[in-house]
Amino acid sequence: MSTTELLFSRTDKELGSFAVRPLDPFADAELLHGWVTHPKASFWMMQDASLPDVEREYMRIAAHEHHQAFIGLHEGRPAFLMETYDPSELELVGLYDARPGDVGMHFLVAPSDTPLHGFTRAVITTVMAAIFADPTTERVVVEPDVANTAVHALNEAVGFVPERQVTKPEKEALLSFCTRAQFEAATAALGVSI
């Protein structure tokens, strides 16, 4: 798969074009390193990662049968990282009863010196729309750190409903779910077109 191949795209009526492409662990490593080690990415837990560490982590993900990583574009420029995983195989094994059609998700917005109002909400909307573009996806599952209140608010805005706190090896997490119907209702309420 080429890193120029777009897997999903949408246009936000206020912020323009968003798209998702495959991540290349080598070609994108330097870009990712700057993102995951930035102070604003503390919940990503890679603050002290070296460039080879980032390459290794994303090579591991690229080789994994149940984990994928993507680069998100805004107006054609890399602007966010998106990961999906099978929660019955990774991250949440034994912590909840996974259902067929569940997809786990992580996303990280690139640091910016010129933030755009509504950008992060447009990113999570794009991430969710990309995941639900697969007709086999029934529900998106997230497990952000309980202390990450900013992402809890974003998750709620696109339809996530918190279920309970779970203990993972690296954090206390807020297990939350969003069905396709909940996502569609939330985006309709916000007046967002997918």
From TrEMBL:
UniProt cross-references to SMART domains, sorted A to Z: AlcB (SM01006)
Q: Which InterPro entries match?
A: Acyl_CoA_acyltransferase, Acyltransferase_MbtK/IucB-like
Pathway field of the UniProt record reads: Siderophore biosynthesis; mycobactin biosynthesis
Q: Name one Pfam family in it.
A: Acetyltransf_8
Acyltransferase MbtK/IucB-like conserved domain span: 21-68
Q: What does this protein do?
A: Acyltransferase required for the direct transfer of medium- to long-chain fatty acyl moieties from a carrier protein (MbtL) on to the epsilon-amino group of lysine residue in the mycobactin core.
Report what the protein is called: Lysine N-acyltransferase MbtK
**In which organism is this protein found?**
Streptomyces virginiae (Streptomyces cinnamonensis)
